[in-house]
Amino acid sequence: xxxxxxxxxxxxxxxxxxxxxxxxxxxxxxxxxxxxxxxxxxxxxxxxxxxxxxxxxxxxxxxxxxxxxxxxxxxxxxxxxxxxxxxxxxxxxxxxxxxxxxxxxxxxxxxxxxxxxxxxxxxxxxxxxxxxxxxxxxxxxxxxxxxxxxxxxxxxxxxxxxxxxxxxxxxxxxxxxxxxxxxxxxxxxxxxxxxxxxxxxxxxxxxxxxxxxxxxxxxxxxxxxxxxxxxxxxxxxxxxxxxxxxxxxxxxxxxxxxxxxxxxxxxxxxxxxxxxxxxxxxxxxxxxxxxxxxxxxxxxxxxxxxxxxxxxxxxxxxxxxxxxxxxxxxxxxxxxxxxxxxxxxxxxxxxxxxxxxxxxxxxxxxxxxxxxxxxxxxxxxxxxxxxxxxxxxxxxxxxxx
Length: 401
What we know:
Rossmann fold, 6-stranded mixed β-sheet, 40% helix
């Protein structure tokens, strides 16, 4: 073979040879959520701040590499959310995606995370399908789900005498699931569901929906939506005078919405949460640090605290595995280790990916009871995690044998 042909052969050999993957120089965490729409004040920049605080408190490294946090706004559009997830996974070296309010987007991201062998940890996501029929070995569902909130609050209110229900429900997967879970709990506890009406995400005028609820003969109006939709619908219900003869049950009434709703309109309402900033010294200290870093100076809610707690546990798992590249192995480590952090305390992650921890029944304070801007709730009951979340054997998750 001539020198020229030999050189050409060598060049083609180099071009066709498999190229080793570039060494990952960091563990990258992506916070994907709504930063400009109806969920922005409930997750948004607050979840990004919480993730960065977790990384700093953990020491800034895991698996021998520095940890980076990136963030993006999915705008509550599934195509945008899944496009960001794909770019992060395929081009930007992101190892895990956290938060993801909006159940349709969360389910899509969970599927892609399994396909790419990455990690998805839902803190803002609500649908119980994530640990049911749509569970994957790459998903952990951390903060809450529609089963726990819908069934827990439905049962508690019926036991207090609220027997006849009508639902005002967000018309997408999350709202449908929330209404279903609450309805089943109401009926199982001896109550009745007299009807329901559904509305689009981001509805501004609830007059026609509220009139249907008023005419139904129900004494409990179940608000099966989230974010700004919950606040707008409950505020308009109070303005319409419905609260004189009806009790509002905000199934996902978040603490961050109460200042806009005002204690005058919300007082006495009950919600379920696995976290409240005023539970103990650790939660109070975290809330103070968080408020100093977030532009709005708001205190953290359960989903933002869930991002902090879940990032801590994820980084422990990365250390245990020795790296972040194998998402399935990292999630398996998250399940093998008990959870323990300053905000959620001790708990564990089940085979189906469901994180188990207690839930608190909280009641909105009256204006006279509140002593400061974020002194909004009081604990009136505690539910064990094993009693709050769906039994593992009932979820139809293929990982559970």
